[in-house]
Amino acid sequence: MQVDLNAKIPNNVGLADDRKLQRALEAWQPNFIEWWKDMGPEGFQADEIYLRTAVAVDSKGWAHFEHVKMPEYRWGIFLAPSDEQKLINFGDNIGQPAWDKVPGDWRTELRRIIVTQGDTEPASVEQQRMLGQCAPSLYDLRNLLQVNVEEGRHLWAMVYLLHKYFGRDGREEADDLLVRRSGNPDSPRILGAFNEPIKDWLSFFCFTYFTDRDGKYQLASLAESGFDPLARSCRFMLTEEAHHMFVGETGVTRVIQRTLELMKEAPGEDVTTRGGIPLDIIQKYVNNWFSVSMDLFGGEDSSNAASYFAAGLKGRFNEMHPGKYEDHVALDQVYESTKPTGDGGLENMEVPMRRAMNLVLRDEYKADCEKGVARWNKVIKRAGVNFEIKLPSERFHRQQGLWAGQPWDLDGNWVGEDAWAVKKSEWLPTEADEAYVASLMKPVYEKGKIAGWIAPPRTGINNNGFDFEYVKFADDPYARI
Ligand code: BYC
User: With contact defined as beta carbons under 8 Å apart, do 42 and 77 qualify?
Assistant: First the structure.
């Protein structure tokens, strides 16, 4: 399908040929813009930001870079190219043609998956809305706003599916996506991590490293879906997601690098006296964001996950990668793991494979998280510093699934409620840690300059240098704060 870039809503889904849908989405569009102005990045709406806009769906040349005012960003609806022969590749319906309409038996489940996915997108924009006010450089400010506009586009992707395939209740769900608010006690976002505040840039980098990576794994398993429009939407969203995780990984690396530089300048001195973020505070942030992101995979033994797989709605990560899985029906296997007895003991468990799909996905996610941590540790080792960042045990600080609410330490040892209450301040950011990090969060808006707690990036965006004018301000940005 041709990309129509000049339409009111850029798209490659033939919107001009479906007047009813086009009218419905064009009626949703002003509500989205209103939400963006209210709940999107605070300030900067009148500035020109060097943004990447999706303009095609080919693997090469799909994006266009230019300075744009955010409310004029061309949020579009893009589906990855379709495979004419597409079949359902796993579960009970394996080998049957993929659906290009919602299968009646699975309507409620599909809508639920799409709404849950859709809800995370505006949630993350809301969580990050104040960060531009304390951006450490123009480069970082631009990356934040890029991530934000693309989460907005991912919302569009899910809203398109709701409008096109779910009739009136789909339209109502699409409206509700603009009504719930991250962290609002009366009307919170659906999943836990998306109600956590992101008050500083270290949290933002951890979020884009750990939580966006959950996005990668969830989107990849939905990209296997037998509901073809969902699969194609998610496949294209994954192309944008890679940059978000890059921002997270390199962001944490640059914070570590700067801390190491400051430690080298004054060996033995507390790095906070020089305005750096101590490695043990970075570790606490990692502990927090890794554990809340692990919660996003749901229960280890889940009948929902089993139904999604059985129906062909949600597969495994790289389900169809040659050589990865031989058995796409997964009826005869079990997944071996450990479960708590509730009093500090552990028990082996065997979960029927289909019911273990959340765990299968989560284990892959965890292995992927470890890779970036290893790269961070290389940087620390190269500097000759004896410190290793570690991911906490899957049992630590959990709010979903088998380990929820139980007092396990970072290494997965049962410590009991009392010790947990005492030790918590060594494991998770304290108010004092957060206040210290917050004290460093001062904006730097001059080209080529950077705050003292983070190192500059090695390269800029789209072959531009770090000193490129990534944001052209409409007026003095310091005067706005
Ligand atoms: N918080 O059967 P269970 C992204 C609920 S991130 C609160 O164990 P299931 C992004 C669950 O809803 C990717 N509630 O879990 C990243 C259920 O409720 P009900 C987002 C939770 O359903 C950065 C109950 O607990 N995409 O894209 O198998 C920036 C028992 O559930 C949580 C998706 O998540 C939680 N953490 O799995 C921007 C994909 N976990 O039915 C964007 C779509 C579970 O009892 N969603 N519950 O009321 C899904 O596939 C599944 O809904 C989940 C949960 C994997 C999330």
Answer: no
